[in-house]
Amino acid sequence: MPSATMIEPDLPLAERLFERLRAQSHDGVGMTRDSYGAGEQAAHETMADCARQLGLVVRRDAALNLYLTLPGRRRDLPAVMTGSHLDSVPRGGNYDGAAGVVAGLAVLAGWVRAGATPQRDVVVMGIRAEESAWFPVSYAGSKAAFGLLDAQALQSPRADTGRPLGDHIRDCGGQPELVAAGVPALQATGLDCFVELHIEQGPVLMGAGQPLGVVTGICGSHRYRAARVLGRYAHSGATPRGHRADAVVALAALIDRLQAIWAEMENDGHELTLTFGQVYTDPRQADFSKVPGQVSFSVDIRSRDTATLRLMDEHLLTTARAIATAQGVSFEWGPASGSQPAVMDPALRQALHAAAAGISAGVRDMPSGAGHDSATFANQGVPSAMLFVRNANGSHNPDEAMDMADFAAGARVLGQVLAGRAEVAVAAP
To answer: Is 92 exposed, middle or buried (0-12, 13-18, 19+ CB in 10 A)?
Structure first.
């Protein structure tokens, strides 16, 4: 049987799937596919319908992760897996996450059309709830698949409804009691590899003029989503500076000092990012004629090095304590959340580079500052890799602009690597 590593993905199918996702997800501004809600649910049904038409085996686990399988000749062998998430942030773009699932289906559709059969199962996974904009839990779907999502996480409230994650899973038809019990749908020993195609969410590939990136590692995070600084409300005209406990001034001092510490850490060789993504006063009490007595804010620290995450967190807390003492305020941090960094598999990275070279596609090694489900797989001992596809205008906004020619290059590279790992072959004519 001849090699099938060069079978062309079904790119017209990919375009149809993207258009269907766009039509069913557009909220008037961008795309909203809410985690364990109507938007994500519709996207999963779209992918399942496509898989059935291709003759793939469709199944879901207790957390409603979706598995679309082309059976292999040796079903006892560890499976080759690809895929990504299908949820989005509110008013996001059409490609973040979804491109990885669509690419996997396009690859398998090409194989089916060519009469190709893999030696081992090849699975496209549609992962639930990767975007932690909805629930304060990192990688909820992929953690649940490995039996790692505990009962406490299932009590996490959704940002818009306030209802627990477990209730939303049940509403969509899942079994949160099995998730809480740690019943795994996936075992590392049952997987040969996991390869995730994803749009780049920053400007590196656009700036370099290259369509593809091979990810070296995925950043972990340390977050305070619901922090507050508490001062004292007072009259803006009648309260002299020395008598104030101004929450806004205290937070401004913290942000300013942490920016300087960030620069110092970078100069010392640390790689990290620090973001205060939400800053707001209490709308019920704040007024232009009041000294602000409360400010709510969030902190997001990211790095591929756990020691760097710990060091920046120490700087954050130490600096806040000093400001609190000096300015007569207090800081409340609320629950901490986060994720572990992950390193991508060297052999898979080499295979992605070789496949890109084979189609003369420009490619570069690069880290991922954003988190991805591949980190869950890698940290469970599954050989994992990520392929970035160039994307204009960043991500988490309605202006994502992946060119289909770049997607085609990524799908071809993905297809070659999956075919090599799964030992795909077509019958001789």
So the answer is: buried
